[in-house]
Amino acid sequence: MNNNKEFIQINYSTEIKLNFNVKEFIKNALNIFNFQLIFFELSFTNDEQIKQIHNQYLNLNTTTDVITFNLNNLEEPHGDIYICIDEAKRNAKSLNHCLDYEIKTLIIHALLHLIGYTDTTKAEKEKMFKEQDRLLNLLTTA
Question: Which residues pair with residue 7 across a beta bridge?
Fold first, then answer.
């Protein structure tokens, strides 16, 4: 990354076998946003762990595929991201694509949350998913 300062940490609290370099994918994705300072921590969790985080911070006693926290601001986000492998596997199966693609999708989704995209209304979801698909296409065909 050109003169950018970066810290990217990947944590595996649950077992996962992926066929791509997660850190490199994140670096490539972050390059698109052209941040000058990057602090990004991604933790792969399971159903039990994500449910606990979901309940503790969002007061929802359910599992989910990804939870994103921006610990700084929209211009220089410090991302704290949790991806649930169990939910990602279910998503991949129901959407009929591989786990690698689903994880890449969730990483892009989390990055969009970091820069201010939301998905609470139908209109917000449409806008976010359109940008998510555009970025995913850009990163997977490069």
Answer: 39
